[in-house]
Amino acid sequence: MTRKRREQLEDIDPSWCPVWPVTWQRCFHLVRQHLDTGQALPTVVGEVVRQGEDLGRWVTSVRHGWDQLTPVQQWMCEQILGITPATEAEKPKARTSQADKWAMHYAAAQQFYAREGHLTVPRKHVETITTGSDGDGDDQMQQDAALKLGMWIDNQRRRGAALAPERVEQLSKVGMRWAYPYQSSICRGMVITKPTKRGLG
Asked: I need a labelling partner for 112 at 20 to 30 A (CA). Which of 10, 131, 141, 156 fits?
């Protein structure tokens, strides 16, 4: 088939020979059939199931993955099914990794230390930091995060021997006072010595 002939067929029906998965095309037609019966567009997972396909789940995945669709798919969904891309408020928030959570709490500890000059944080203290700042002055990407710094500091102090050496070093730089400070051991990179008995007689 010539390229010109293919383009002519695509002008008549963009989905005549789709390059996307057959399962996607199948769900598209099932949703179209559902709408042809006068029913509303299914948007709730598990609400409408046709021939084993969860149409609400498919519609949701299309809306949230709009940018991954081809222009033809976007046109078909919007013009034929009436599906629109999800707004930023509708999209699920990305999960914060444990590393990111630790980094946020450490930033809060740095902020507290810079302001107070110590890291003796009351257990119930909540520290608010601004996240999402990239230094370009775009306030729209910034948001405040209230962190339970007191509880976090207490947990890190109790878990000192299990922390990675670099984390122990980072916290020590901002005034962390570790539990059992006079143990004679190497605490993940920190050498802490017992007081001698000299002069105790």
From this structure: 141
